[in-house]
Amino acid sequence: MTTEQPAPTSERPGPQTILAVVAWAVIVVGGFAALALYTHTGGQVSPPPTAERVPIELESDAFTLVMAIHPKCSCTDASLYELQRLARDLHDRVAFRFLVYVPSDAGDDWIIGAHRDIATTGVPGAVIDDPRGELASSMGMLTSGSVALFDPDGEPRFWGGITRSRGHAGDNLGSDAIRAIVRGDESETMTTTVYGCEIIGRTEFATAGGGER
Amino acid sequence: MSQASSPRAREIEHARDLAVRVRTNRLFAILMAFQFAATVIGALIIAPNTWAGAESSIHVHVIAAITIGGALAALPITLTFIAPGWYGTQHVVGVAQVLFGSLFIHITGGRIEAHFHLFGSLAFIAFYRDWRTLVAPTLVIAIDHFARGIFWPESVFGVIAAAPWRALEHAGWVIFEDVFLGYSCVVSSRSARAIAEHEAELESKNAEIERQVDQRTEHLADALISLENEIEDRRRIESQLVQAQKLESIGQLAAGIAHEINTPAQYVGDNVRFVRDEFVGLLSIVDAYATQLDENGPAMSWDERRSAIEAKLGEVDYDFLRSEIPSALEQSLEGIERISHIVIAMKDFSHPGSSTKEAADLNKAIRSTVTVCSNRWKYAADLEFDLADAIPDTPCLLGEFNQVILNLVVNAADAIETKNQGQEKKGRIVVSTRLDGEFVEVRVADDGGGIPESIRERVFDPFFTTKEVGKGTGQGLAISRSVIVEKHGGTLDLLVEEGVGTTFVIRLPLAKQGERVAA
């Protein structure tokens, strides 16, 4: 035996449905607001040290751009993409360095995978393994995707992020500032927000004797 | 929005509109479920975890895909089931659809390709064929850009202080698409309205045609009843006509029949009277013998006795009586037999008939009819029979068949009489029967010169006659054809040998195998 379905009508449903629609709108707006907040909340940034305290070798006849990377951070893909664009424009005046975070218990696949991902970008530069993120940390780069630009004299000229928000590629203040600095133009921006994963976890930070973050 | 002109067209348009809404809502319900699954799977593939050094936890995008994506899909799907025809459902669907686009953009890292989802969604929303459904999604996109332009300008424009028109630029492209989609919705809506109006008009015309068909069917039914009544009347009249003609024939034949009966009756009477008269003489002879043989009588010699008897025999002319009386009696019996034959023939001919066909001996019927009308042909022609023996009883309306034979024989005699007018010679009529497959063929042939070609076509027409006034009504052959063709399913044809004579050929169907015919 089958029961016949009532034919659909254009009638407005009851007040409960209207209330449900309103509640839904509030929930959805709230959810998107929270997501937007998360997307636009940056990581920790500190000014890099001067040349004599930089733990890696810098170029003396060109700018050096260092990027700290957490290989598992998906948000860093957007930073690498933006770095590609910068390299395309500035490769003859800038030397690139990648500090790749390597946890203490990492296997070869971690390192190999990270090197491969960087090689895939086509950006020419030295890839430096950074056990427990100590090098990045010493250079104030605590968030994956952080960059630091040093001039040929070893002076830090810019530090921060080169994406507009978390994981979002596209025109951004950081990239514009780096281009301007390298080209010798005026730039009011010396630092920007970094969007990415934390390079050093709480445990490592505590082990390294870090304080509050 | 303008409306269709007639209430019925509006009703059709509304029903179509409702059907489109319900169907599109269902499509979106399926799409919402698919998008929800795709968002969660995409989030899990693109960024399953967020990291802090060696430690990881579920990425916020995964949580957002499940919670926000779930919320986005849940309400449109629910409304599709509980309020599929409500206008609000399609607006909720539209808003949810573009918000899904926004969620995709977040989860895919703001990829430019993900923005195509928004434009595709607007096109899909246009499936509702209602430009108003594009308004809320467009506003959501515009508000999103304006809000982010205010709070996080870099996230939209890549710079902190973008020119105000940049916010308009993003909304502008959406409105650019909306203009075309809205226009297509309006055009589609107009087409739907035109179709609804045509359909309403068609329905109205169909209803009018059906009404006319009903009316005409009713008229036809009335006409049919009237026609049936007319046919029934005609049958009755025809039947009455056949009966009337039979009575007319009997009337016309009466004098001849009377003559036929009167002739033998007359000589039977004469003979009986002769026997009665002469019987007295015979008795006187017997008395004479008795007197001469009486022992108590006067004594007389044998010669005297013999002379007395001889005298008596001579007196009553015994020799004459002895030869004439048997002859008179014989002739009387023959006369009575003739009368009896005529009476039986009359009885057969006057068979009242029945409304249903009965198996009949056609040869016998032909003989009786010819006998009854003998006075009509015997002075004009000699009539010969050539009747086949093996004719089985044939289903027929006997009374009406007899009438046909009578008509044909009388016509033959009349034709011969006309041809031989003023001459002493007699003509010849041959009545024959034979079996021809599933038919019995009866032919009535005369040597009356044949029917002229100019009138052959008309001889079966009612009231057509060449006979003088009072001799024929012109109904004989018309009725004959009606009887043979219409009532018996047979044929009545005419064979003419110009200058020689005419033969009428009747073909009557025999009973088919298994057909029941009253005996």
Can you characterise this structure?
- The complex is a heterodimer of chains A (213) and B (519).
- Chain A has 213 residues and is an alpha/beta fold.
- Chain A contains six helices and five strands, in the order H-E-H-E-H-E-H-E-E-H-H.
- In chain A, strands 3-2-1-4-5 form a five-stranded mixed sheet.
- The model of chain A has no long low-confidence stretch (mean pLDDT 87).
- Helix content of chain B is 67%, strand content 11%.
- In chain B, the strands form three sheets. A five-stranded mixed sheet of chain B has the order 4-6-7-9-8.
- In chain B, helix 12 runs antiparallel to helix 14.
- Chain B is rod-shaped, with a radius of gyration of 58 Å.
- The chains are: A alpha/beta (213), B alpha+beta (519).
- Chains A and B meet through helix 1 and helix 6 of A and helix 1, strand 1, helix 2, helix 3 and helix 6 of B.
Question: Biggest interface and which pair forms it?
Answer: A-B, 56 and 51 residues
CATH class wording of chain A = Alpha Beta
Helix content of chain B: 55-70%
Instruction: Tell me the domain tally of chain B.
Output: 3
Query: What would CATH call the architecture of chain A?
Result: 3-Layer(aba) Sandwich
Rough shape of chain A? Answer: elongated
The structural class of chain A is: alpha/beta
Roughly what is the average pLDDT of chain A, rounded to an integer? 87
Strand element count of chain A: 5
Mean pLDDT reading of chain B: 86
Q: Which strand order do you get reading across the main beta sheet of chain B?
A: 4-6-7-9-8
What order do the helices and strands of chain B follow? HEEHHHHHHHHEHHEEHEEHHEE
- Extract low-pLDDT stretches of chain B: none
The CATH topology of chain A turns out to be Glutaredoxin
Number of domains of chain A: 1
Show unreliable segments of chain A. Answer: none
